[in-house]
Amino acid sequence: MLGLKKSDSRLLLLVAGITLLAPFILNPFPEGSELAQFNAGYPDLMQRFVIFGIFAIGFNILFGLTGYLSFGHAAFLGVGSYAAIWMMKLLTMNIIPAIILSVIVAGLFSLLVGWISLRRSGIYFSILTLAFAQMSYSLAYSVLTPITGGETGLQPKGSDPRILDAALVNGTTPKANLFGLQMGSSFDLTLGSWVFTFNTGFYIAAVIMLISFYLAIRIFRSPFGMMLRAVKSNQNRMNYTGLNSKPYTLAAFVISGMYAGLAGGLMVAMDTQAGPERMFWTASGEVVLMTILGGAGTLIGPVLGAGVIKYMENILSKINSDILHGWFAFLPDGLENLIVNVLYPFIGKGWHLTLGILFMLVVIYLPGGLVEGAQRINRLFKSKSQNDSKAKPEPAE
Question: What's the chain's Rg over C-alpha atoms?
């Protein structure tokens, strides 16, 4: 299918099924129940799942294939966001030109950063990328304020030129759209007594993520991807054979930066604003965590890692002491208060502590991330079924 092997086709179909059915999979608990706060099927969060999935997929092309760890990928996310917002302010609120420009600008910027940073490897490369990201953040925050809006950021206004759009009525807020279809709109599908609500913005972002995932599979399975693995395996030995590894690593860096720019453009398409906080070093660290948590060098791992971290950030952080007391109200008061006091530091504002513990456990016991954990469980069930089949007595003749 689409030039992919059977295993890759099945993987693509699996990701497509999970992504497109996410509004239903992420809402397993009935509204009004105590567990309803764990539902994550609302549009804003689902859009973050797929957008950061794209960001992590692109980062994995660099880190997972070449082993070059960038601490500055948030710079390309921010540059893509600013390019998209300026396209919406000057040309049109249609998201297609904005996304295209965000990818192009982020690609050009990553070409410059990569050309300089890839002169070094290891920790020196990582520090160089971090320095570029922090310089970009500082420029956006305080130096280039006429272009970036400084601390307050940028968003479309009714007075912007937008030469391809009709003039807005005074007081009307510009809204991102796809040929007239607004990103925040939704439509209902009725099947018998069931009513399903579909959010336009999420499904547009989901389709773009699936295309990005397909392209990542083609890159992984291509001769180019094999050369990147050779760089990760032993770059010196590769150079001794007469192959110059720098064009390959630079190409991987630029492709990865373009993925980040695409994610930045989609952020603006879904929420029409851009600010310097997207370039801060914590955003770069977040995509590193996503990739390692899911499984660096795997195809589906970064998507899983992005989903887990964004889920924890938006759902686990909402749990407070009142909710905990409600869960354990059936216990004696002393035991209830003890359990709540023990759990409270790990939820709400302390959800980063839970994430840190999870990350440590994964790095120590599952170096291949969540994907390795799934593979171990699969092998365990396979070996158990094989043992059961061997233990079956032969039928009497």
Answer: 24
For residues 70 and 278, the answer to whether their CB atoms sit within 8 Å is no
**Helix orientation angle between 200-221 and 246-270, rounded to the nearest 10 degrees:** 170
Whether residue 163 lies inside any domain: the answer is yes
Structure token pair of residue 390: 């061997």
Q: What is the pLDDT of residue 34?
A: 67
| Overall average pLDDT of the 136-146 stretch | 92
The pLDDT of residue 195 is 54
| Residue 34 domain-assigned (yes or no) | no
CA–CA separation, 125 vs 55, rounded Å? 20
Task: Return all residues near 139 (Cβ < 8 A) that are at least 6 apart.
Answer: 148
Q: Residue 391: inside a domain, yes or no?
A: no
Mean pLDDT of all residues in 302-307: 93
Residues ≥6 apart with Cβ < 8 Å to 147: 82, 86
| Count of the separate structural domains present in the chain | 1
Mean pLDDT on 326-347: 88
Residue numbers of the domain that contains 114: 6-26+41-278
Phi-psi region of 17 (alpha: psi -120 to 50; beta: other; left: phi over 0): alpha
User: Per-residue pLDDT for 259 more than 80?
Assistant: yes
Joined tokens for residue 149:
């809006």
Contact 107, 258 (CB under 8 A): yes
Q: How many residues does the chain have?
A: 397
The DSSP code sequence of 131-154 is HHHHHHHHIIIIISHHHH-GGG-B
Q: What is the pTM of this model?
A: 0.91
Beta strands in 103-212 (DSSP E): 177-178, 181-182, 186-191, 194-199
397 in a structural domain: no
Task: Please tell me the distance from the alpha carbon of residue 87 to that of residue 68, in angstroms, as a whole number.
Answer: 32
Joined together, the tokens standing for residue 354 give 């839970």
Q: Hey, CA dihedral for 365, 214, 206, 137, is it positive or negative?
A: positive
Q: Using an 8 Å Cβ cutoff, are 295 and 304 in contact?
A: yes
User: pLDDT tens across 311-323, in order?
Assistant: 888 888 888 888 8
